[in-house]
Amino acid sequence: MSNNPNPLSGHKYMNALRKLVDKVKPNFEKGGKLEKFHSVFDGFETFLFVPNTTAKSGTHIHDAVDSKRTMIVVVLALVPALLFGMYNVGYQHFLALGQSVGFWEMFIFGALAVLPLIVVSYAVGLGIEFIVAQIKGHEIQEGFLVSGFLIPLIVPVDTPLWMVAVATAFAVIFAKEVFGGTGMNVFNVALVTRAFLFFAYPTFMSGDVVWVRTGTTFGLGAGSVVDGYSGATALGQVATATTQNAQLVDIIGNPIGFIDGFLGLIPGSVGETSTLAILIGAVILLITGVASWKTMFSVFAGGALMAWVFNVAGPDTAAAHFPWYNHLVFGGFAFGAVFMATDPVTSSRTETGKWIYGALIGAMAIIIRVLNPGYPEGMMLAILLMNIFAPLIDYYVVDANIKRRLKRAKTN
Amino acid sequence: MAQLIKTKRGLDIQIGGKAENQLSGMKISEVVAVIPDHYHGITPKVVVKEGDAVKAGTPLFYNKAVDSMNFVSPVSGKVLAVNRGERRKVLSITIQRDEKTAYEEFSPKAVSQLSGDEIKSLLLKSGLWVYVKQRPYDVIANPAQAPKAVFVSAFDSAPLAPDYEFVVAPEMKEFQAGIDALAKMAGVKVNLGVKAGNTIFSSVQNAEITIFDGPHPAGNVGVQINKINPVNKGEVVWTVNAEDVLFIGRLFTKGQVDLVRTMAVTGPEVVKPQYVQSLAGSAVAPLIKGNVTMGVEHRIISGNVLTGLQIAANGYIDPYATQISVIKEGKDNHEMFGWALPRFNKFSASRLYASSLLQKLFGKKEFEYDARLLGGERAIIMSGEYDKVLPMDVLPEFLFKAMITGNIDKMEALGAYEIAPEDVALCEFVCTSKLPLQKIVRNALDNMRKELE
To answer: For A182, which residue in chain B has the nearest alpha carbon?
Structure first.
């Protein structure tokens, strides 16, 4: 095909690969030797080549968009947060040890610490996905490409890998597959993983010890922490503060403020610390139109408003007087707003509903942070809670459309 | 002054092969076929047999449910065969065409001299009733039920659609007669949806003219009904395609069933896209012979690329088609890593590819199309996609879900009476999850009709 614009099509390696795929394909079809792996084969084939299935009914031409493209763009949008998270893991580690090392040393330390989380999350989740697809005779769905990438970003770096594995398996099976797979789930799969960790291993997952890796990673970065080290996150400090206006500090006791929260060189879950990196992802999601700007904007607006209300008229606690703008940059607020609240499957699906859904998430997250001393971070619970209410919000929006139609029939 | 309605939501798909405004003669095959399946929702009772001589306008079969509803031969000649399939289902009736067409004579009385009921029975008898469709259900209208309105869209906004101004202009007298007949028969004014900037249709009498300005599907009669006089439960609206109004008009000006129509031969695989005169029921072959690209597998579509019927190279044109589209089948195209590459030549209404930006900024129009789905079928994931291309006060995603689950009460409440498969064709085009939405709507409407009638 000389006029084909795809630079890879028609290339000799591509042709050889296509021939190979065509040659082994019969083995995976019904009645073939490897029929059991049909879904897996199909997954790989469609990964390599755009499926050549043609329209059987209805529209003869189709838009080039598909769920692979959509998911891969979300993964791309998560990359800035991941890369910064890797760097930050190294940065916090060497800060805790009081050693000053170069950029690459920090980054490599962090990358090695984070990679196993990614590998475990994908291996467990995709493994289950492959098995279920085969049992149900489905194609492999791409949803977990995103969930599997989100999970390592929203857990503390020192979370044991076996816990990540158990939590991922729980979430994929009980939050997704039992509902019917990608597109049918009620709860955000990555958040269910996080919630499982939080509630199943509470002594381990809260407190001050998991946010900064003080030990070694594959033998790198040995040393002992400096005097005065504390691994508490900003929100952890706020929750335990005894005075109304708590001064936030970093892990070695230097004061920090809004700008540190925005840039993200602070302890926290791997990918959640840098609001800047998250906003780069947000720009990608909004330019490509994958995420709804309505949801994203209204989460921030609802959170800011609620936090401001507490600032002005809240109880006499440090959390209530934590400035509203700080609420937006510390903890998982920005990450949740950009990557979790906008998950189209679990959010409101009507345009009006998106405003309400987003605003309630923002407000609810702040309410949990301020009024519940047991949970310094409210974002995860707020989104999971609103996942339940999203269909209810839609119900009322749809009902308004139905009523309008009924009224129209009567007036005629 | 006619009312102007602007619609924003929708999409004009840029695809190569628009017909030039020139006519290249009459092209009708020697053998024509009338295929009962082309008339959705009827059961045929055949009244001719092999060897019978027929004229243009002679009944071939009637509808078992409404026996006054005839389906007639478009040509004069000899019945070659009544082809039957499993369980004696009538697949097609083929007719060897005479050199010179002889017509059944229907009294050529002017519309003004006939009553509404006389017009109706004349249309039923002459087989032209099949061109009067109804909402709800998008089927041939039930003659026993009076409509609250009649809608005719005077433009087709679908990709590469024929320019009705060009097609109808030579026969404005017939068009007017057709409108008059519809108005008299229905006892209500005919709503005529005219494209902004169009001149010839704005002088049509006996019709309520509304001007529409917007991207496809603004020309769909369903959208126009929704904007002007939406269909509620228990109500019926009749719709007639503007080109088919000519058939009705000719019956009253000439007294004959003359089904010759000017068809657009279009599509990226047509060498010289143009208009030809042909006939419902003609084989498609003479229309495209020598005028399509060589060396690729074609998909021939009777109709447009969004709603048309796929037909074989030796297939026949369906009675409602106003154009033929030819595109690549594309089965031999194995694009490597398509999901990761920029794919500048592939169109996407979403911003996940650069194409819609290129189109906006540089007016890029040439995109490659073939019949591939370009992805695997999934559950609905993205939200709000459908709303962007359906300018109706309907929540499409929720309606589709009600249809998929077969919840008739919900379908009713969410606007199923207003919708036809063609209205959701763009939803199907943009769908990330590649769902066969037109089929879902068609099946749901059939199911609903069966349950409620």
So the answer is: B379
